[in-house]
Amino acid sequence: MKMVSKGILKKVDQYLLTNYPVIWRTRIHYILLFSFVFGNIGAYLLGRFYPMSKKQMILDSGVQSLTLGLFIFLFFIFLYWAYTQYKFSFRSYRFKDHLLTLVIYTIGAFSLLSNVYVFNHSIIHTIANVVSDEEFIEDLRSVEDNAIIYRYRYGMDTPLTQEELAPFQAILEKYGVYKEMYHSSPYQNDKRKVKLYSSELNSKFHTLRAAKYYQHAGMQDDNYTKEYEDFGHFYGYKGSFWYMMSGLQEFSWVLIATAPVLLLLLSFVSFKMIFVAMFLQFLLMMGLFGIDEFRLGEVEVLFPMVLAVMFVILLVVRSNRPSFKMLGYLFLMTIPFTVLVLHYNKFHSNIGDLPFTVLLSLFLCLFAFKLLNKRNFQPQKQ
Amino acid sequence: MSWIKKMTPTFIKRLDQKLLTKYPNVWRTKLHYILFFSLIVGNLVAYGLASIYPVAIDQIPSSGNFMALYFISCVFGGFILLYWGFTQFKFKLKDHRFGVQLMTFAIYSLGILSFSINIFVFQYRLTERVANVEETQTFMEDRSFVEKLDYFRYYAGNEMAFLDQSRKLQIAQIVGKYGFSLDDILREYDEAYYAYYEGELYQSFESVFSAKCMFNQLHHQINCYGFTSDIWKTHWGLTLIAMLLLPAMFFMLSYTSFAVISGVSFIHVVVLMAATMLFSMKIVSIENFYFALSVFVFAVVLFFRKNESGLNLLSFFFLLLAPGTLLIYIMNTHAIEMSITDFGTYVGLGFVLTTIAIKLLTIRTAKPKG
């Protein structure tokens, strides 16, 4: 596999270098092969064959930790990619080439983020398949039904006796919960009844319910209605995975709106410049959100206003090269945030519209970049 | 940066000159700038900012606000640390004596502690102001009244709209004092099942309650709790992590480049991910894994001490691994929150481990060639 990829890659690399140098310098062929093809296959297989059984399963918090880890891992990959873009600076000054580069960066960002998505999707399905739907519903029922012991208790968190534990023994063994204090807690409003509370079993059931909900939420067909009526009872809430995946989706769109712009900037300037612009961007955002917080102004008005002021200053100081440059970068980085703030606060906060917002933001950035480029990046005439 | 020079007072400039000529190793760490801009100016600014931050009885910062401000302070501090790191990268450490290296590491730790104090001063002053927003006696009465609203909600038929007029007026008066209207409360109740505990009114009350707890104004309260103490404990836990890990990174920056640091950090992420996976599969416990890895890498560094190539990278890896292992232990036993005694003990232990790592690095890496 390694040899084949090396051989093919070498040929593709050579071909792109000689025929399409603009594409070659983006290194998209490496990203596509290692992230989109191998990365996704790897992520799927890792999620699919992650050792999992009823007794030994990863909890939702564990999946979240792994997701965070994967994000940090990909951040380093992105950093390396950004470094290669910085190393081979842009030579072309044509708008068409810039457009192509931005599209390629967007595809690359998509590819890197798809790895996280595929891994999560795969591992959640693996968790859901640990136990069949019917069996799991039965287990949930048995805990719900048997767990009620008619006994008066004052407080919560009182250890159960061996006798009280007897009805749950089978289920505890099945899910591998052994060394734990089992507690009782008042059952609903009736304090005479107590319900089994085992944090480990509870966490496992919580994770399984969330995984099953995620698995079945996508099945909006006939099977979903009758057969999964019980799920309505047991999965009445959306569960952690559903929220995690929709949060991941939103966060990914924000990254897609910003990452390609950063890469495009790095094709022309250094990391140092980018960090300074990011720091200024941070101060600006802090100020704008602060004003909003103190109810002195509304954030969806402030962001476009600042953008407009920046644009005017850019026009005024266009003959002063250093200040124009820094302000230009700042302006460019403010665009995606302005569009996103408007999306969330004013026009529509529907996640389905987010891709269009991101697309609009990228186009605006490219347009701004073209304006800046005219002034900034053209080679100086000797 | 030129604006830093403009802002620097003359006595610091004189100190800069003195350090440059007499103590160049202290000079290159830029400790005098950090002490002046962070420990003196920074704390004054932090205190001032927290003093002018809008806090009034009808505008109480919620727990979310406290967390957001904490996060913002950390990001702000992160950028400044990045700049400091950059200056250390620019002026490399030329002196390779063990004592100098240890002193450099200690100076970095001090600088980071100073940044941590800035954040703490801001949070402390803000909490103090929130605690004094209302008399304790009156506040506790209002709080218990508002808590009873929830009782009405559950037991009086879930519809506050059906309450009699005089009761409504009473509610409106009390919540009005805290900047809310009766409509706000009704809307919050309509929006969520556990509206009160998710609502802004609840958060405002909890802010004051938690702040009063921190300043011991609630002597009679048995269950004194609150997010403010959590933030403070977590803050010192994170400071401990920063005081061990960041100096190690700065130390590496004094010899190598950002690219090497990124490479070493990347390897650490891979190791940590592998450890997390093995942990979730119940194959190893994460702290034993890290301990074993530290010993293993230490052994490898010793074994290959005659092989120059690759050893530098391995030593750098070990340098970060030593405090990393300690931190994994702490997080598993204390869940970051810790007492000041534990804090001191762990910082001390972390320094001992890192000193060993630096010693190894000094022997192998930092010797001048030829």
Largest sheet of chain B: none
Radius of gyration of chain A, in angstroms, nearest whole number: 27 Å
- What structural class do the secondary elements of chain A suggest? mainly alpha
Q: Mind telling me the C-alpha Rg of chain B?
A: 26 Å
Mean pLDDT of chain A: 79
Primary descriptors:
heterodimer; A: 382 residues; mainly alpha; 4-stranded antiparallel sheet; 16 helices; 4% strand; globular; B: 370 residues
Kindly describe this structure.
The complex is a heterodimer of chains A (382) and B (370). Among the domains of chain A are: 133-239; 268-382, no CATH class. Chain A contains 16 helices and four strands. Chain A has helices at residues 2-19, 21-26, 28-48, 60-87, 95-128, 133-146, 162-165, 169-174, 199-217, 222-225, 229-234, 240-266, 271-293, 299-316, 321-347, 354-376; strands spanning 149-150, 158-159, 183-187, 190-197. Chain A has a four-stranded antiparallel β-sheet with strand order 1-4-3-2. In chain A, strand 3 (183-187) and strand 4 (190-197) form a beta hairpin. Residues 147-157, 186-194 and 221-229 of chain A have low confidence and may be disordered. Chain B has 370 residues and is mainly α. Chain B starts with a helix and ends in a 6-residue tail after the last helix. The relative contact order of chain B is 0.09. The chains are: A mainly alpha (382), B mainly alpha (370). At the A-B interface, helix 4 and helix 13 of A face helix 5 and helix 13 of B.
